[in-house]
Design goal:
Strand content: under 5%
Helix content: over 70%
Distance between the termini: 20 Å
Shape: globular
Number of helices: 7
Radius of gyration: 13 Å
Order of helices and strands: HHHHHHH
Length: 112
């Protein structure tokens, strides 16, 4: 049940978008952005293999949203938080998916 809520709840999608927005506003290169996302969500630095996987995910999402810009616009429109119009919609949507993926990790949701 938890996984269905985390993947589908608009609040989690909006939280991922706001997190992605902040990361995109504060950094200029993918490596720094991804490291910051991991640190913010998991409270640790990413390992090299994790960083590589996240870079691949980001690139795949960019390609996906370039082919379907309406889907990107729909994703970044979820929630009530004001959309930062200065950020490219394709870039924001791609980074939102990465942030959403991190927020849904067991490591992010489970306290041990």
């Amino acid at each position: 049940m938890q996984s269905l809520i985390l993947l589908n709840d608009p609040t989690w999608v909006e939280a991922a978008r706001v997190l992605a927005t902040r990361v995109l506003q504060s950094n200029s290169d993918d490596g720094t952005r991804l490291r910051q996302l991991v640190r913010r969500v998991l409270s640790r630095s990413p390992q090299n293999d994790e960083l590589s996987l996240l870079r691949d995910l980001l690139q795949r999402q960019r390609q996906r949203f370039l082919l379907a810009p309406a889907n990107a616009k729909m994703l970044v429109s979820v929630g009530e938080w004001k959309l930062d119009e200065s950020i490219d919609v394709i870039e924001l949507a791609a980074m939102t998916v990465v942030a959403h993926t991190l927020l849904n990790l067991d490591e992010a949701m489970t306290r041990r």
